[in-house]
Design a protein that fits this description.
- The chain has 300 residues and is α+β, with helices and mostly antiparallel strands.
- The chain folds into three domains: 102 residues, Serine Threonine Protein Phosphatase 5, Tetratricopeptide repeat (Alpha Horseshoe), CATH 1.25.40; 71 residues, no CATH class; 100 residues, 2-Layer Sandwich (Alpha-Beta Plaits).
- A five-stranded mixed barrel has the order 1-2-3-4-5.
- A hairpin with a 4-residue loop joins strand 2 and strand 3.
- Helix 3 packs antiparallel against helix 4, helix 3 runs parallel beside helix 5 and helix 5 runs antiparallel to helix 6.
């Protein structure tokens, strides 16, 4: 006679293995976690959850082929698992498997257009956290589709990123930022998909009139935009947050910008080469209300 409780016994043992895997993963022991998830898959091969969890581990390891394979197996077993469809879409995007990416987004409820190349589905502005496990710099980007974003700030040189890079970001929010009266979710960067041709240069500039600096800096940014470049005042725009605020909602102490700064300003220029960056500064100086360039460096 067959055991009527056999299925429940298998699911119970699979669940215990899966929970051991989750705890090991939480503690950073990913190889051991994978072994437990795989045990759960063998115990209950029709259960989608451990397949999803294996795909999740491979996502954060940037093992895209494996992440794609296990998330496909997860949605085969549970077609309503939106999280697995999202992770399948992320892996497919990383691999430029646009047919699978389109199927994943549609199955997750996103009506992306037809096509054969990259998904063309602009999703507005979003902040993205570069190097989320290290310095965690947050920059503003234009979302090209649900998980691809074009960097529109000039990242700090030590980040390894540049203005105009296209990055792959996660689908789950990890903190929030406000722009005007609107709150935006922050997404963690997973990898770089396309490197831009821009190079970052930094000029230390002493304003002659601190009260007029905001206006003359805006003129430099506009001039840069007209020349297909970018310019930012890092002294005024870079804001250092504690970890709790960076991955949550910044409190009032952090959510502000200095009104006046009498010392030199660190101004970033994103240009294709040094000649273009220097020409931008030289052309702007006569209208800079007497600002002085103290140093100019970059190109790395």
């Amino acid at each position: 006679m067959s055991n009527p409780f056999g299925h429940f016994s298998k699911r119970s043992r699979a669940n215990r293995a899966n929970e051991r895997g989750r705890e090991l993963s939480r503690r950073g022991h990913q190889a051991e976690a994978l072994a437990e998830y795989e045990r759960a898959c063998r115990l209950d091969p029709g259960w989608s959850v451990p397949f999803y969890n294996i795909g999740l581990v491979h996502k954060y390891a940037r093992a895209w082929e494996l992440s794609l394979r296990y998330n496909e197996q997860a949605v085969e077993r549970e077609s309503s698992d939106t999280d697995a469809w999202w992770n399948l879409g992320i892996a497919a995007t990383a691999l430029s498997r646009w047919d699978i990416a389109r199927r994943a987004w549609r199955s997750a409820g996103i009506d992306v257009p037809d096509g054969t190349g990259p998904v063309d589905f602009p999703c507005g502005r979003t902040p993205v956290r570069l190097n989320p496990h290290h310095d965690g710099e947050v920059v503003w980007c234009d979302r090209l589709d649900p998980v691809r974003a074009l960097i529109r700030n000039i990242p700090l040189p030590e980040s390894g990123f540049c203005f105009g890079d296209v990055v792959l970001h996660d689908g789950a929010a990890n903190g929030y930022r406000k722009s005007g009266n609107r709150e935006f979710p922050v997404f963690d960067c997973l990898s770089t998909l396309e490197r831009s041709a821009f190079v970052t240069f930094v000029a230390n500039i002493q304003p002659a009139d601190a009260d007029a600096w905001h206006t003359v800096m805006e003129a430099l940014a506009d001039r840069a935009l007209d020349g297909d470049m970018a310019a930012e005042d890092w002294t005024s725009s870079v804001n250092f947050l504690c970890e709790a605020c960076s991955t949550g909602r910044p409190h009032e102490q952090h959510d502000h910008r200095p009104v006046r700064h009498d010392g030199p300003h660190r101004v970033a220029i994103a240009a294709l080469d040094e000649n273009a960056a220097r020409a931008l500064i030289d052309g702007w100086l006569p209208a800079s209300n007497g600002a002085t360039v103290l140093s100019f460096a970059g190109g790395g």
